[in-house]
Amino acid sequence: MITVFDAVLVTLWAAVTALGVRRGLGGVVWGVLGIAVCFVVNMIVSGGLVGGVVAALLGALAVLASRRLIRDPLSEPWHLVAGGLGGFALGSVLVGALALGFPIQNLGDHQNYPSTDLPSSLYYVVSNSYIRQSLSSVLDPHSNPALRTLLIPDQQRAVVLNPPR
Q1: N or C: which end of the chain has fewer CB within 10 A?
Q2: Neighbours of 112 (CB within 10 A)
Q3: C-alpha to C-alpha distance for 26 and 87, rounded to whole angstroms
Q4: Could you list the residue ranges that cross the membrane (predicted)?
């Protein structure tokens, strides 16, 4: 079922894609380096303020690099398409992280996502979200570790520290 939560996520995805198009060739660099920064920060930092500072510094370096390397990012029509692809990729990561970013409820050997402790209206829209259901395989501890590190780094760290039996 498509819920309001899906509509918000798709709108965010479209906005990030449009920003990539607007940046042109710089949008490719912006998207790819944005994903790379998220991945690296999620791998080396356990979160919190340090993670935010490291991400901000790496992001600023990425922006400076893209501005120095690409002099005329909108000179060709294909630059817009390439920028859109970069924005689409970054938007995909952002939407996936938001869709899977709610608390997980541990019930012995079973996990419930999202937690039933959420307010009932929020629980309903998130649990019935088509995007969240499409990404539910990422929550499996045996799924792709790189994708888990990118979208749900806290859960990936828990699997690495306490491997499933």
Answers
A1: C
A2: 13
A3: 10
A4: 33-66, 78-102
Give yes or no for residue 96 having a pLDDT over 60.
Answer: yes
How buried is 96 (Cβ within 10 angstroms: 0-12 exposed, 13-18 middle, 19+ buried)? buried
Going by their DSSP bridges, the two strands 105-107 and 110-112 should be labelled as: antiparallel
Dihedral sign, CA of 132, 108, 118, 121?
Answer: positive
Check pLDDT > 80 for residue 162. no
DSSP character string of 71-138? S-TTSSHHHHHHHHHHHHHHHHHHHHHHHT-S--EEETTEEESS-TTS-HHHHHHHHT-HHHHHTGGG
The Cα 132–Cα 121 span in angstroms is 16
Q: Is 165 helix (H, G, I), strand (E, B) or coil?
A: coil
Residue 164, both tokens: 């499933």
- The residue assigned the tokens 């690409």 is 70
pTM of the predicted model, to two decimals?
Answer: 0.86
Q: Residue holding tokens 């490291």?
A: 54
